[in-house]
Specification:
39% strand; 223 residues; Jelly Rolls; 1 helix; 3% helix
Length: 223
């Protein structure tokens, strides 16, 4: 069984938009909020309200509350931050796979949105490569299938507690840094047979995730 949910990933805005150009408010006569999310320039909702097509925001008012989406990629926007590192936090679909309980190996793959040509990169400062599951390993690959990162997990001993974000280094959970200047990635998760009788309750996953969201994901990955 496959369960799909949205995880939050931080995109870094490149220097094509300077801090002098970026504002804390929308352009005059333009919609400043979508729901409770502020939409500052160079982003904007509606014609003549954004810097160029990469910064166009679609406000989906059919949702309650309304939610903003980065139009070019159809990614939900959680936050736009010009105060610190010029970052954009967006939601990216992530799949949780039911642990395979037979013998041998099972391989699951996923692709990220492709940011090539855009003013955005996957932030190496604000994201980690997170792998969850029991007795599995995952590769982070680029578009040419070159290995960018690797992480592996093992099953816990019976009666042991779930790991915390400060101890996400192998037991059910593994995290590692990602390279800079990343515009696309592919995940390749491989499970293997194991003897932990409750392993079918532990979801398998491999994806980039915002560092601040790791602890929440570990505690309740399906929320």
């Amino acid at each position: 069984m496959v369960v799909e949910l949205t995880i939050w990933v931080c995109l870094w805005m490149t220097a094509s938009i300077s801090k002098a150009t970026a504002q804390s408010i929308a352009k005059p006569n333009c919609q400043a909020f979508c729901g409770n999310i502020s939409i500052p320039y160079p982003f904007g909702i509606g014609e003549n309200c954004y810097h160029d097509i990469w910064y166009e925001i679609f406000c989906n008012s059919s949702l309650s509350p309304p939610r903003p989406f980065l139009s070019r990629f159809s990614l939900e926007v959680e936050q736009i931050n010009f105060e610190d590192n010029q970052t954009l936090t967006v939601g990216i679909p992530m799949q949780l796979w039911e642990v395979w309980s037979g013998t041998g190996r099972d391989v699951m793959q996923g692709n990220s949105p492709n940011l090539t040509g855009s003013p955005f990169l996957f932030s190496s400062k604000d994201n980690v490569f997170l792998v969850g599951g029991c007795t599995g390993s995952a590769l982070l690959l680029d578009s040419g299938n070159r290995i960018l990162a690797w992480c592996a997990t093992i099953c816990p001993q019976q009666g042991s507690s779930m790991p915390s974000s400060e101890n996400c280094y192998g037991v059910l959970c593994c995290q590692t840094i990602i390279p800079s200047s990343l515009v696309f990635y592919r995940t390749n998760f491989t499970t293997s047979s194991n003897s932990y009788e409750n392993s079918s309750n532990i979801p398998n996953s491999a994806a980039l995730i915002e560092s601040n969201s790791v602890s929440k994901f570990i505690q309740n990955p399906t929320k």
